[in-house]
Write a structure and sequence with these properties.
The protein is α/β, with parallel strands linked by helices. It folds into two domains: about 35 residues, no CATH class; about 200 residues, Rossmann fold (3-Layer(aba) Sandwich), CATH 3.40.50. Helix content is about 30%, strand content about 15%. It has eight helices and six strands; from the N terminus they run H-H-E-H-H-E-H-H-E-H-E-E-H-E. The protein has a four-stranded parallel beta sheet. The protein has a two-stranded antiparallel ribbon with strand order 3-4. Helix 8 links the parallel strand 5 and strand 6. The longest helix is centred in the middle third of the chain and has 13 residues. Bound molecules: zinc ion (ZN) (2 copies). One zinc ion (ZN) binds next to helix 2. The site of one zinc ion (ZN) has 8 residues, from helix 2.
Length: about 250
């Protein structure tokens, strides 16, 4: 966030369109015009996964998820301006965008879980080196400031999973299987040393504490489901998740 002197000397620009931010928006990173291009995901939706309700029958998107993963919500659809925002956050180094993306996420329907802590979905070691930061961790930190909740870096991605974009749901699930482990907090294990990550135990007092996974994009939920499986193995009972955006799914039926 720019300090007062910088704000006087350099009028702030929208990180997406480079338009000047008005004085009222000087502490934001995205202008109102760009923010209005983000189309909110709205109910009616599947109560569990937040996907718009199918016309007939039950929701198939979340049918195979682990029982631990109770509720997932996304702020906006991944299209147009929101796609540009995610791209800028991930690939253009504009980590400060996380503040305004988290502002959009903070309205997601995850109320009533006041004791929950936030857990970013980790990047694999190669991606993290390449990007220099984990965009999901930035989102979690920004959301944690808004929701006044702590952020715990509990998961590690033990291998890079490659791009998921062109895969069917079944292939996505196979692609991320076993990708996450819980961090051994006692030994302070870092990303990239998977052999030391398996001994983590959630303190028994925290087993009933809900965790909220934070990620930038929801496509089929396979990544969140796999992260929830790793937490389930560590003894966690309740996992929720919130993402900034949700892909408009192709019809795989
Ligand atoms: Zn703008
Ligand atoms: Zn569902």
């Amino acid at each position: 966030m720019p300090n007062a002197l910088e704000q006087l000397l350099l009028p702030a620009e929208c990180l997406l369109c480079r338009g000047l931010l008005s004085f009222a928006d000087a502490d934001r990173t995205v202008c109102p015009v760009c923010r209005h291009r983000w189309r909110p995901v709205l109910p009616p939706w599947c109560e569990r996964c937040g996907q718009p309700e199918p016309l007939f029958g039950g929701c198939r998107l979340c049918a195979d998820w682990p029982a631990t993963l109770r509720r997932v919500r996304s702020a906006v659809w991944l299209e147009g301006g929101a796609r540009e925002a995610v791209h800028a956050l991930k690939y253009a180094g504009r980590a400060r965008l996380a503040d305004d993306l988290a502002a959009a996420m903070s309205g997601a329907m995850l109320r009533g879980w006041d004791d929950a802590v936030l857990v970013p979905v980790p990047l694999g070691p190669a991606r993290l080196r390449q990007r220099g930061y984990n965009q999901s961790e930035r989102l979690a930190q920004a959301l944690g400031r808004r929701w006044k909740r702590s952020v715990v870096d509990l998961l590690v991605r033990v291998r890079d999973t490659g791009t998921q974009t062109a895969l069917t749901p079944a292939a996505r699930r196979a692609n991320v299987a076993g990708a996450f482990e819980t961090r051994n907090v006692e030994r302070g294990t870092r990303n990239g040393r998977p052999g030391e990550c398996s001994a983590f135990r959630v303190p028994s007092s925290a087993l009933e504490q809900p965790l909220i996974l934070v990620d930038d994009v929801f496509t089929t939920g396979s990544t969140l489901a796999e992260a929830a499986r790793a937490l389930e193995r560590a003894g966690v009972i309740t996992v929720l998740a919130v993402t900034f955006s949700r892909a408009v799914l192709p019809d795989f039926s």
